[in-house]
Every structure is written in structure tokens, then in C-alpha cells.
Design goal:
1426 residues; six-stranded mixed beta sheet; mainly beta
Length: 1426
């Protein structure tokens, strides 16, 4: 029965222990152990420990040494010894033997230079069978070396009463074996004569008997070794003082707690010096101290050293005449000491336990663990946690035994142990046990944890009272660990702290009140693999190397998981939240530039190829202190009387202290004697009274702050003068000289001046006040104060105020004043008058100046107060635009950043203090136009139905037109990469959004770009749009001559070749007669001119001119070859001049047909010069250089000539000729210009550029009205003919037709014009009449429509050439690189060249003939009008 109860008790304790297992830290394990112990009464802990452990020993050669060791156990332990980690075989050793108590005896220590068998580290090992093994601390056996003198005594002399020192330095281990002899007799040591630990002898308060020969002896067991002898002479007192000096200074020492230290300090001089000591700048009091002893002569001995003794020791020697000092550091090391020792533990198999061990020491000790005398190597199941604790996971029976924590540092080692007992499971109590849990599965598998679930056993389907233990281990390892469910009935558990990519074996056991049941079948589960990141870097340390630097060091992570690539060191100032980092390649780094005397935290993260690892814990260190980096603040002087001045100051600014302020150093001097400076060092108070000064003398003062590191910078010198005589305080002060009060709503400001008699001391002032009586309340203020505000008063109340000066004798005569506080409610300020006369002056396309007047100002409108004005503005497009505002302090404001061509409204208000006006009347202003800043949008090209060689270009206006669009330019080319000046140009006048282009080459890719323009110039080009003309056969005009149009040719609608037609009204039959007569007259005139010119020119003259022209054209961009000779500019071919009929176009669409023509030159709008550089660099605007070589360079570069072609045709009668010559210009831009048509029945020949004067149809008044040149370039009216005109002979026939554009404003959009149609002929056969524009003539680059249908020249040598019609001048195209298969007409070309050599003209002759032609044309126009 008793055995059964014991088994049940043990089983229940086992269950309780497992349920309490989640805390593995040892406390629960120990409490469980006690319960197991109390319940089982089977095994108890066996006391097993060392009574005596070996200690360090210093021996000499040949001596005997005993290393003590004694251990206690109920069973007598077996004692063994280890030397340097290896067991000693003492059975066969005749010099070393084991004593009965376990100590080790070493007889006749052996030690030589090359053989040191006994020196080393010894350790005692105690073993009890079936219980375990323990080891002692290690002890060091040192053997003193051979006697050797590092320095020997030297002869010296010393004054009577001074101290003498005789050096005899030997090996440190031999110092205890040194003794001294005087005159070959032993020297007896006492309070006056003593030996230093180094072996030196000090004799204090020397007397005549101390003179003699001294030597030191080393007795280390062998033959004594003697030093040289040195004579010490004792001198009588000198007659004159002798300089103070140190004969022996203290040196820095390192000692272990419990040892003693001696700081030698020997000073000599006359008078005899007195020596005192300080530690860390604090006076050391040796009287009455048991550990601090001031040895005779001044040396300091410290016994039984503790850690608090560390610091800086200073020896100060004084003899009344002089003071000298010497410093030394004492560093104290502490052997390891246990703050917490390991405790005995009971446990069961599969449990986890922790042995705790906490140690301290200096340097910081390292900890290792020993089990039964063998080193514990960290592994998956034996882990060092929390720096020093040992954790054992999944206990097995073999883990039983004694565990020892061994702590070690440079100055010692210590051990502490504990016993682990693993109890056997108690037999199960009688009763049914649960069967195995069912269906154990891993429902969640991660890298480091696994969640298991299962079903209740068959024996207990409910399972409410069952608890479960989960046993698990790595596959192939027989060490199981156990995890228990947290509450009864729970059928899942999460196993944590697993290793990634590892196979584990799990089994589950259910327990009821009778005990554990059957185990489930083993379940193998593999954890997920994990990116192998580094662990934390161990042993991170940080120490301050200077006031601005900290050095951080660490070690390589234990689990680097591959090669460590680098480290990142993070640091942060304490109290801040911004962390800084630096990349480090090694295991240490010094961070510079830190703040002085400031705490910083540091941590380290290791990086491998997978990324950053686990961060270390933060370590905190404070940078070293330094002298303050700034002087004290606000130094003020207060003269107290004729002999004292009070100084007040504030500490240096925060952040500049660089340590703890320990005091302040005050330096002062007379201003008259700047070299005589007096110092005074005070405490940490912020004031100092300097007394003992002279009367009526000016002194300068400066203050500096002190830290333990020294003195910081001082303030500037501040001066004050003491009084000539002290002030009188035998009577009360006189009445203050004045009192002023200023009442407010709830307060009164009181100000005053001191009494007129300044010779009576004033300590302060007393202010009395009250309603009706000044005695209600009294306030006292300092004597330096001159004003005070009385608060918390009642509004609208009558107060009486008194002011009295007082001193230590009493109060003086009062001064009275009264005041009435203001009423509480203050009326709101009335609004101000708004500004008037607001005007908006437009300055540019984005700037408007707003001006106004202010009636609340004086007549001169000068602002003298703090008022300001607020300007607001907005535009109504879009409608929901918000106001923008700006403030101004003058009566005008410049509003910038506005949109071009936009109407804005403006209003102004004025503000002064809290008063503001309403908004003024609004003023409106529209900004000037500006060139378009965006290209046309949505450019599309489509083919026209039934006309494969005709295309239609459509587009949308630019989004940023910045003004009214006056036209567009269409550029097209077959080469998208060609220079822009080589593209064909099609002008479009007005705001039309579609245009037709005809006579394109079939099955050819074309590229199109569009430019918009307004009155200010051209905008940017659109992106190129590609279009390929369709394939078709038998296109009209491909192989025909100009006169033979072919059967497919149809007359153009409206009497023009505009691709979109130009609607005109049909002419009556009388018009035909007028046209025939006109053509006849023109033909006669042309024949006469040609005849005159041909008879007036000589061949030799012509050749000379041609040679001159070649020289001029030699520098042109496009040079003509020998075949490039062209006829003169006036070249009339009667057979090519024909009249085209004028029909009414059946197409009334105004969008396609608007062709506005300017009536006179006043309709032309000047062009903004700003476009010259903005929109391409060459040839994309209509402005040209109207310079002296405009014609010759034009012809040389472009291969074009001004021409007017007038082909005849046999169409219906009554035509009207309207001739407009067009010119291509040689300038970086294309410049296009059109003449003016006054009416359908009147036309002008208007020529743009000519280098010599010729009569034109433009009246002088029209010229005068053109006031602005397109490029502001003066035109040259008087250029000699020989310099330009003959140069046309050397032009490139391939370029004889070029880009021509007319310009016209938007006027009479529906006006229909009869026009003469010009068909293209051979490029050399043209009619050209150059004219001279007036100086400064302005030409509008607006683009008209293109009422011209041109056909390809059949016999062109290379290119298909398009020419412009006379009259509309609307459409021009530069040469297109479209090859025509027909061969050139050689005969005709040859004839043209011959003719060109035989005809030349004189300028005066040409002028007369052109004037005559102008008169004929006027007559013709008069007839037409009639």
C-alpha cells in the first residue's frame, strides 16, 4: 500500500512538473526538483566541494613548494593534479608527490634558462565514483629568475634633513629577496628608512649618521649577489635657498584588489620641502586612515586596495618658495567574483534545464563550463544563454553529474559548481492509462517552428481531462526534448526554436490522472530552408578614445552562415531619434566628430551575401570630457563700494560644457597695469564678490569655466571703476527724482528715476498702490530696477500709487501719483476707405502694372505709417479660376507670370493695423499676344477620293495659341531627316484647319509638319506625320508639256489652281475684250524692252560682268557649275504668256476658299523679332535679311530667281492679269511676301527685294506706311547693278523655283479675286521684274491660301519644279526630289545659254523701261476699271 501511494505521488508530481515545464529557466525546474525530492525520497544531493584550493606561488630555484588542495565528500574523493591541462603521473615521480590531504609537494624546484619543468599552471581534480568530478581553480607557480640588477646604487649627496634615495632595481620576482647593507652592515628598516617594492632604499630626514657606503644584496636561495657600493654624503644646511626638485617621482601602477601599492615621491631642496597628496584633485587625508599611510619622506602607501582606490594621484612638494607636482595613475584590477552561483537541479529525461552563473570582475571575466571535469562544448543541446548561463536541452541519463562555472580574467580565476540529478519515472498508479493519440499531423511547417495537431485517444474520445507531452528530436539523435500542452483537453502545440532545413521526429503521449499512456507513432517533419543570415556579433565593446571619438570593436558572429562581407555600425546620440550608420570592413572602427561628453549608443549588424543579419544589443558609452568650448555668458559688474565689485555671469551655452563644470576662474587687473593679473578660483556659483580693491580705480575682469580637464575660453574683458568714497547709509534715501504712470485696462506701468543725491545707499524701492489709497498693497523691487507693471487691476478704476526708496536704515520720503485704468470695452476700428483710381497698364505678354491712389493719404500720396495694400487678380477663363493675391507697401504693384492674350481683372484693398478696407473697383487688362508655345494638334493626312495625287491635311489649333492664329505653314518632304530649309512649304492663311496639296508623286512616302503663327510670330512645329500616296496609273500631267495640258486636264475652279478652289462670280463678255487688249499692250512693251536691251549691251561688257559675278558667288553655299548659267532677271517669252479664264467655283465652302489679300501695306502686321532664335535656326519663318547681297546670295544659295510667269491660254474672254513677283531670300529663314491688291480690277506689281532702284506699282505713300522692317534690317536701295543683277546668270537651274509665301491679314475673307494663272515652263523661261522696297519696309508673314494648281515640268533636267501663280502668290514649294524620267531639252537649254551671253542691261536703262511699263500697267488697269 505504501509503495503504491508513493508511486501515485511520484506520478502526479511528474505530471505537475511537465505541466509547469514551459518556464525552462531553472526556477521552475528547481521547484519541481524539490517536489520530486520530497515525493520520491529516493536520491538527495551529495555535498561535494573543495575545502582548500591552490593559490599562486613564487619560489626560487632549489626550494620546495606545496600546492594546497583538499576536497570534502561523504565518500572520500580521489585527488589528482593537472599541470597545464595534463594529468600528472605522480606514481613514478621522485620529485613530486601527493600528500595525504590531497596537496602536491614539489621538492627541489628545477629552473634554468632552457629547462623550466616546474613552472606553470596547476589544477586539483577530485573524483567520487558514481557521483562525478570537480576541478579546482588554477594556480600559477612562478620561479624567480637568476639574480640580475636592472640598476645599481649611485653615489650622491643630500642636505641634512632632506630625503635620500638609493636605487637598486631587480627583476620583479626577485624584489622580495633584496636587502641593504651600510658599510657592510645590514640596514634595519624603520619608519625613517624603508625599502620600496622595486628594491630601492629611501632615507628620510637624513642625519650625519646616514652617511656611508651602501650596497644591495639579492638572496634567492643560492649564492648572494652583491651590487656595487655607492657613497652617500650628508651636507650641512646651505646658506641660500636651493631650488626644489624631485629626486624620485611616482610612476603609474596596476594592482589587484587586496594588494598594496607604494607611490614613491622624494623631493629635495632648501628649505626642506613638505609633501602632500591628492587623488582626482581631492585632498587625501592620511591621518587616522588604516589603508592610506604617508611614509617618511613623502611616499604614499595604499594597503588592501579596493576598486574605489583607482584614479590619478598627485604628489605636491612645497617649501614656501616654490611648489612642484607630479602625477601617477593607479589602475585597480578585480579577480572574478560570483554574484550568482549555479544551484543544484532535479530533472527528468527530455526536460530542458538552465544553470545560472553571474560573475563580475575587471577586466570582464570570460566564463566556461565544465561537466565532471571535462569542458562543455556548445552545441545544439548545450547552449550558453544570457552570456554566462548554461542551457541543456532534452536531458538524457548521461547528463547527470557535477557542472562547474569557471570564470577567468587576467588577474585570477574562480569556480563554482552544482549537481544535476535525473530522476527515474515513478511506476504508474493502478488504473486505466490512455491509448495513443490519433492522427498526429503537422498543420504548419515553417523554418523554425512546427505546429502539430492530433485527435484524442480511442480510450478517451472526449479527452477533456487529458494532457499531452510532445517528445521530439532531430533525426538520428537519441536526445529527446519534451513540450507540454498548456491546458487539459488541448490537442495542438507549436514547437519553436527549431533549426531550418532539418528533419525532426515527433511523438505524442497522453496522460490522465493515472499516468502517461501509449506513445503515438513517430512522425517525421522537415522544417523549411531559411536564408542563411549572420547572427549577432559577439563581445561588442565601445570605449571613448577622446572627447570627440569612440572606438567600437566586436568579434565575428558565431553563426556567420557563410562569409561575412561587411559590417554596418549604427550609432545614435542619446535622446535623439535619428540613427547614423557607417560601413566597416574589419572588426573595429573609430567614429570621430562626436559631441564632447555626450552619451552615444552603438550596435553592429553583420552582412553576408544574403543580406543583414541579427543586430547586437546596444552598448552605451559617453565621450570623454574636455575643457569647455565656450566662455560663460552675460558677465556683469556691480560696484558695491570703494573696495569691492560684485561679478555675475551665466554658464556657457548648453552643449559647450564638454563635461561637468567644477568651478569658475576669475582673472582681474587694473586697466592701467595690464600685466599684473590676479586669479581667483571659485566654486560653481554664478557670482563672486571681489574685495580689497583700491578706491577710484578702474578694473577689468574676465571669467572662464573649469572642468576636470582644465580651463575653457574666457569672456572678454569687462571694466568697472570703484567708487572714490563709500556711499552713506547712516540715513534713509531721499525722494526719487521722478515718477511716471501709464494706465492700461487691467494694469499700470510705473517708471521712475533714482534720487538726485547719489551718495546715499539705495537698497531698493517700495511701490504702494490701491483704489483711493496707496497703502492697500506694497511691492518691493531691486535698486537697479527702473520700471514695474502692476497687474490684475480693475478697469475704469482710480488708483493712487506711491514710490519710496529704502536702505538698511529705513524708507525714504514717498512720491505720489494717481491714474485711472482704461475702460474694458474698446470700440472696433472703423473700416478704411478703399483705394481709388485702380489702373492696369499692360507691359508685356505676362506682366501688368497695377497703380492706384489712396484717399486716406495726404495729397502728396506719401506713405508714412505701417499700412499695406493687397492686390488680387483673376481671369474668367476657365470660369472657376480662384483669385491670386499679393501684398505691396507702395501705390503700385507689378503682376507677373500671367498668361498671354488673356483678360484679367484686378482690385486692391488697404490694411492698417486691424483695420481693412473693402475691395476697390475692378480694373481690367488684357496681356499682349505672344508667339504660340505649342504646335498644332491632331495632324492627320488623308487621300482625296478620285485624286490619288491630291491629299488633304487636317489639324487642330495649338493648345497654347497665346493670341489669335493668323495662319499656318505646312512643311512636307519625302526625307524626314532633311534640313528644314529643304522641305516644301505650303502657307495657309487665317484659322482654317484643313488644306489640300496636289500634284504629289504616286506611291511615295511624304512627311508633314505644321507650324502655327499669330501676330507675334511662329510657334513650334508639330511632330512629323507620314503618309504614302496611293498607287495609280496614268496620272494627269506626269509627261505633258505646259502648253499641251492633255485631254485629262480640267480647268481649275474659280479661275485658279487652288486645290480647294476659290469661288468667284462669272465675268461678263466685256471682260474678255479687256484681257485681250491688255495682253497685247504688255506683249508690245516687252518686245520693245528686249530690243532696247539687246542693242545697248556689248558682248565684252557682258563677259566682264559675268566674271565679276562668278567671283561674288564663289563663297556661296551652293555654287553653280558651267551649266548653271541663267538668263537675266528680265526675260520675256511671249509664247509662254497666257491668260486663264475666271470661272465661278461651284464649291461655296468658306473654310476651303478664304483667300484674304491685304489692300495696302498698312494692313501688314510687324513680326516679333523674338522668333529668330526660338523657332529653328534656319529657314522656318518669313523674315529675311534685306541686305546688299540679298539677291546674289539668294540666287547662289537657293538656286532660285525672282520670277513672274504669265502663260497664255485660250479660255473664255475678259481675263484680268494681276501680277505678283515672288522672291526667295538668302537668309537663315524663308521670307515670303505678297503684293497688295486694291480691288479685283486693279493690281500692283509689288517686289520685295532688289539691289537697284526700279519703278514699281507701289506708291510712295504705301511705302511710307510700311514702318517696320521684318528683321529691322535696313534695305539697300542704291546697290550697283554690276554687283548683283548679273550674278543671276550663275544660278542652279535645279532650284529655279523655290519656296514663296504671301502674307495677308484677315480682311475680306469672302472677297473673290480674278487672277492670272501661270503654268510652269522650263525653269530658265521666266518673267522676273525685281523691285526695290523702301527702306524699313514691313512685310507681313501671314500665310494666304494656295489658289494655284501647278503641274510638273515635262523636260526639267533633274527635279520636278513647282512655281507660284501671279496674283495670289499663295502657294510655294521648294524642289522636291522626285525624279522625272524625261531627258533634258539640250537644244533649248543651249539656246538659252547663248541668249544669256548676248543680253545685258544698264541700271538706268532698266529703270526707265520699268517706269514706262508701270505707266502702261496703270493705263491697263484704268481701262479694266472702265
Amino acid at each position: 500500500m505504501a509503495a503504491g501511494r508513493a508511486r501515485r505521488l511520484l506520478g502526479s508530481l511528474w505530471i505537475a512538473l511537465l505541466l509547469g515545464q514551459p518556464d525552462p529557466a531553472g526556477a521552475a525546474a528547481r521547484s519541481g526538483s524539490q517536489s520530486l525530492l520530497a515525493g520520491s525520497l529516493v536520491r538527495t544531493f551529495s555535498p561535494f566541494y573543495f575545502l582548500v584550493e591552490p593559490t599562486d606561488v613564487l619560489s626560487v630555484r632549489g626550494a620546495s613548494v606545496i600546492m594546497n588542495c583538499s576536497a570534502y565528500c561523504e565518500t572520500s574523493p580521489k585527488i589528482e593534479w593537472k599541470k597545464d591541462g595534463t594529468f600528472l603521473n605522480l606514481v613514478s615521480d621522485d620529485r613530486r608527490q601527493l600528500l595525504p590531504d590531497g596537496s602536491l609537494l614539489i621538492n627541489s624546484v628545477v629552473h634554468s634558462k632552457h629547462n623550466k619543468p616546474d613552472e606553470g599552471y596547476y589544477q586539483c581534480v577530485a573524483t567520487v565514483e558514481s557521483l562525478g568530478t570537480i576541478v579546482s581553480r588554477t594556480a600559477k607557480l612562478m620561479v624567480a629568475g637568476l639574480p640580475r640588477f636592472a640598476s645599481q646604487p649611485e653615489s650622491s649627496s643630500v642636505y641634512r634633513g632632506n630625503s635620500a634615495i638609493l636605487n637598486c632595481e631587480v627583476n620583479v620576482d626577485l624584489a622580495p629577496f633584496v636587502r641593504w647593507e651600510q658599510d657592510r652592515q645590514p640596514v634595519f628598516l624603520d619608519d625613517r628608512v624603508f625599502k620600496l617594492p622595486s628594491g630601492a632604499l629611501i632615507i628620510s630626514n637624513a642625519t650625519d649618521t646616514d652617511g656611508g657606503l651602501y650596497r644591495c644584496i639579492i638572496e634567492s636561495g643560492g649564492t648572494p649577489k652583491y651590487s656595487d657600493e655607492a657613497e652617500l654624503k650628508i651636507l650641512p644646511d646651505p646658506e641660500e635657498p636651493q631650488k626644489l626638485r624631485f629626486a624620485k617621482q611616482p610612476s603609474s601602477l596596476t594592482r589587484v584588489t587586496g594588494q598594496s601599492a607604494v607611490f614613491p615621491c622624494v623631493a629635495v631642496g632648501f628649505p626642506t620641502p613638505y609633501i602632500r597628496w591628492t587623488r582626482n584633485e581631492e585632498e587625501l587625508i592620511t591621518e587616522g586612515s588604516e589603508r592610506l599611510v604617508l611614509l617618511p619622506g613623502g611616499s604614499l602607501e595604499i594597503g588592501d586596495i579596493v576598486a574605489e582606490d583607482a584614479g590619478t594621484y598627485t604628489c605636491l612638494a612645497e617649501n614656501g618658495n616654490d611648489t612642484i607636482e607630479a602625477q601617477a595613475e593607479l589602475s585597480v584590477q578585480v579577480p572574478p567574483e560570483f554574484l550568482k552561483r549555479p544551484a543544484n537541479i532535479y530533472a527528468h529525461e527530455s526536460m530542458d534545464i538552465v544553470f545560472e552563473c553571474e560573475v563580475t570582475g575587471k577586466p570582464t571575466p570570460t566564463v566556461k563550463w565544465v561537466k565532471n571535469g571535462d569542458m562543455v562544448i556548445p552545441s545544439d543541446y548545450f547552449k550558453i544563454v544570457k552570456e554566462h548561463n548554461l542551457q541543456v536541452l532534452g536531458l538524457v541519463k548521461s547528463d547527470e553529474g557535477f557542472y562547474q562555472c569557471i570564470a577567468e580574467n587576467d588577474v585570477g580565476n574562480a569556480q563554482a559548481g552544482a549537481q544535476l540529478i535525473i530522476l527515474d519515472l515513478a511506476p504508474a498508479a493502478t488504473g486505466p492509462l490512455p491509448s495513443a493519440p490519433r492522427d498526429v499531423v503537422a498543420t504548419l511547417v515553417s523554418t523554425r517552428f512546427i505546429r502539430l495537431t492530433w485527435r484524442t485517444p480511442v480510450s478517451d474520445p472526449q479527452g477533456d481531462n487529458l494532457t499531452y507531452s510532445i517528445f521530439y528530436t532531430k533525426e538520428g539523435i537519441n536526445r529527446e526534448r519534451v513540450e507540454n500542452t498548456s491546458r487539459p483537453g488541448e490537442t495542438q502545440v507549436t514547437i519553436q526554436n527549431l533549426m531550418p532545413e532539418t528533419v525532426y521526429v515527433f511523438r505524442v503521449v497522453a496522460q490522465n490522472r493515472h499516468g502517461p499512456g501509449e506513445s503515438s507513432a513517430p512522425l517525421k517533419v522537415a522544417t523549411q530552408p531559411e536564408v542563411q543570415l549572420p547572427g549577432p556579433a559577439p563581445n561588442i565593446r565601445a570605449y571613448a578614445g577622446s572627447p570627440t571619438s569612440v572606438t567600437v570593436s566586436w568579434e565575428t558572429p558565431l553563426s556567420g552562415n557563410g562569409e561575412i562581407q561587411n559590417y554596418k555600425l549604427y550609432y545614435m546620440e542619446k535622446g535623439q531619434d535619428t540613427e547614423q550608420d557607417v560601413d566597416v570592413g574589419g572588426l573595429s572602427y573609430t567614429i570621430n566628430g562626436l559631441k564632447k561628453f555626450t552619451e552615444y549608443s552603438f550596435r553592429v549588424v553583420a552582412y553576408n551575401k544574403h543580406g543583414p543579419g541579427v543586430s547586437t544589443q546596444d552598448v552605451v558609452v559617453r565621450t570623454l570630457s574636455d575643457v569647455p568650448s565656450a566662455p560663460p555668458q552675460n558677465l556683469t559688474l556691480e560696484v558695491r563700494n570703494s573696495k569691492s565689485i560684485m561679478l555675475h555671469w551665466q554658464p556657457p551655452p548648453a552643449g559647450t560644457h564638454s563635461g561637468h563644470i567644477t568651478g569658475y576662474k576669475i582673472r582681474y587687473r587694473k586697466v592701467s597695469r595690464k600685466s599684473d593679473v590676479t586669479e581667483s578660483i571659485g566654486g560653481t556659483q554664478l557670482f563672486q564678490l571681489i574685495e580689497g580693491l583700491e578706491r577710484g580705480t578702474e578694473y577689468s575682469f574676465r571669467v572662464a569655466a573649469l572642468t576636470v580637464n582644465g580651463t575653457g575660453p574666457a569672456t572678454d574683458w569687462v571694466s568697472a571703476e570703484t567708487f572714490e568714497s563709500d556711499l552713506d547709509e547712516t540715513r534713509v534715501p531721499e525722494v526719487p527724482s521722478s515718477l511716471h504712470v501709464r494706465p492700461l485696462v487691467t494694469s499700470i506701468v510705473v517708471s521712475w528715476t533714482p534720487p538726485e543725491n547719489q551718495n546715499i545707499v539705495v537698497r531698493g524701492y517700495a511701490i504702494g498702490y490701491g483704489i483711493g489709497s496707496p497703502h492697500a498693497q506694497t511691492i518691493k523691487v531691486d535698486y537697479k530696477q527702473r520700471y514695474y507693471t502692476i497687474e490684475n487691476l480693475d478697469p475704469s478704476s482710480h488708483y493712487v500709487i506711491t514710490l519710496k526708496a529704502f536702505n538698511n536704515v529705513g524708507e525714504g520720503i514717498p512720491l505720489y501719483e494717481s491714474a485711472v485704468t482704461r475702460p474694458h470695452s474698446v470700440p472696433d476700428p472703423s473700416p478704411m476707405m478703399p483705394p481709388v483710381g485702380v489702373q492696369a497698364s499692360i507691359l508685356s505678354h505676362d506682366t501688368i502694372r497695377i497703380t492706384w491712389a489712396d484717399n486716406s493719404l495726404p495729397k502728396n500720396q506719401k506713405i508714412t505709417d505701417a499700412r499695406y495694400y493687397t492686390v488680387r487678380w483673376k481671369t474668367n477663363i476657365p470660369a472657376n479660376t480662384k483669385y491670386k493675391t499679393a501684398n505691396a507697401t507702395t501705390l503700385s504693384y507689378l503682376v507677373t507670370g500671367l498668361k498671354p492674350n488673356t483678360l484679367y481683372e484686378f482690385s486692391v484693398m488697404v490694411t492698417k493695423g486691424r483695420r481693412s478696407s473693402t475691395w476697390s473697383m475692378t480694373a481690367h487688362g488684357t496681356t499682349f499676344e505672344y508667339v504660340p508655345t505649342s504646335p498644332p494638334k491632331d495632324v492627320t493626312v488623308v487621300s482625296k477620293e478620285g485624286k490619288p495625287r491630291t491629299i488633304i491635311v487636317n489639324w487642330q489649333p495649338p493648345s497654347e495659341a497665346n493670341g489669335k492664329i493668323t495662319g499656318y505653314i505646312i512643311y512636307y518632304s519625302t526625307d524626314v531627316n532633311a534640313e528644314i530649309h529643304d522641305w516644301v512649304i505650303e502657307p495657309v492663311v487665317g484659322n482654317r484647319l484643313t488644306h489640300q496639296i496636289q500634284e504629289l508623286t504616286l506611291d511615295t512616302p511624304y512627311y508633314f509638319k505644321i507650324q502655327a503663327r499669330n501676330s507675334k510670330g511662329m510657334g513650334p512645329m508639330s511632330e512629323a506625320v507620314q503618309f504614302r500616296t496611293p498607287k495609280a496609273s496614268g496620272s494627269a500631267g506626269k509627261g505633258g508639256r505646259p502648253l499641251d495640258m492633255g485631254p485629262d486636264y480640267k480647268p481649275p475652279l474659280g479661275g485658279s489652281n487652288s486645290p480647294h478652289g476659290s469661288p468667284t462670280s462669272p465675268l461678263d463678255s466685256n471682260m474678255l475684250l479687256v484681257i485681250i487688249v491688255s495682253v497685247g499692250v504688255i506683249t508690245i512693251v516687252i518686245v520693245v524692252i528686249v530690243a532696247v536691251f539687246c542693242t545697248r549691251r556689248t558682248t565684252s561688257h557682258q563677259k566682264k560682268k559675268r566674271a565679276a559675278c562668278k567671283s561674288v558667288n564663289g563663297s556661296h553655299k551652293y555654287k553653280g557649275n558651267s551649266k548653271d548659267v541663267k538668263p537675266p532677271d528680265l526675260w520675256i517669252h511671249h509664247e509662254r504668256l497666257e491668260l486663264k479664264p475666271i470661272d465661278k467655283s461651284p464649291d461655296p465652302n468658306p473654310i476651303m476658299t478664304d483667300t484674304p489679300i491685304p489692300r495696302n501695306s498698312q494692313d501688314i502686321t510687324p513680326v516679333d523679332n523674338s522668333m529668330d532664335s526660338n523657332i529653328h535656326q534656319r529657314r522656318n519663318s518669313y523674315r529675311g535679311h534685306e541686305s546688299e547681297d540679298s539677291m546674289s546670295t539668294l540666287a547662289g544659295r537657293r538656286g532660285m530667281r525672282p520670277k513672274m510667269m504669265m502663260p497664255f491660254d485660250s479660255q473664255p474672254p475678259q481675263p484680268v492679269i494681276s501680277a505678283h513677283p515672288i522672291h526667295s531670300l538668302d537668309n537663315p529663314h524663308h521670307h515670303f511676301h505678297s503684293g497688295s491688291l486694291a480691288s479685283p480690277t486693279r493690281s500692283y506689281l509689288h517686289h520685295q527685294v532688289s539691289p537697284w532702284p526700279i519703278g514699281t506699282s507701289i506708291s510712295h505713300s504705301d511705302r511710307a506706311n510700311s514702318t517696320e522692317s521684318v528683321r529691322n534690317t535696313p534695305s539697300t536701295d542704291t546697290m550697283p547693278a554690276s554687283s548683283s543683277q548679273p550674278c543671276a546668270e550663275h544660278q542652279d537651274p535645279e532650284g529655279s523655283a523655290g519656296p514663296y509665301l504671301g502674307a495677308a491679314p484677315e480682311e475680306d475673307a469672302a472677297q473673290s479675286l480674278p487672277t492670272a494663272h501661270v503654268r510652269p515652263s522650263h525653269p530658265l523661261k521666266s518673267f522676273a521684274v525685281p523691285a526695290v522696297p523702301p527702306a524699313g519696309a514691313a512685310y507681313d508673314p501671314a500665310l494666304p491660301s494656295t489658289p494655284l494648281l501647278t503641274q510638273q515640268a515635262p523636260n526639267h533636267p533633274v527635279h520636278s519644279v513647282k512655281t507660284a501663280s501671279i496674283g495670289t502668290l499663295g502657294r510655294t514649294r521648294p524642289p522636291m526630289p522626285v525624279v522625272v524620267p524625261s531627258a533634258p531639252d539640250v537644244q533649248e537649254t543651249t539656246r538659252m545659254l547663248e541668249d544669256s551671253e548676248s543680253v545685258n542691261y544698264e541700271p538706268d536703262e532698266l529703270t526707265k523701261e520699268m517706269a514706262h511699263l508701270e505707266g502702261l500697267m496703270k493705263d491697263l488697269n484704268a481701262i479694266t476699271t472702265a
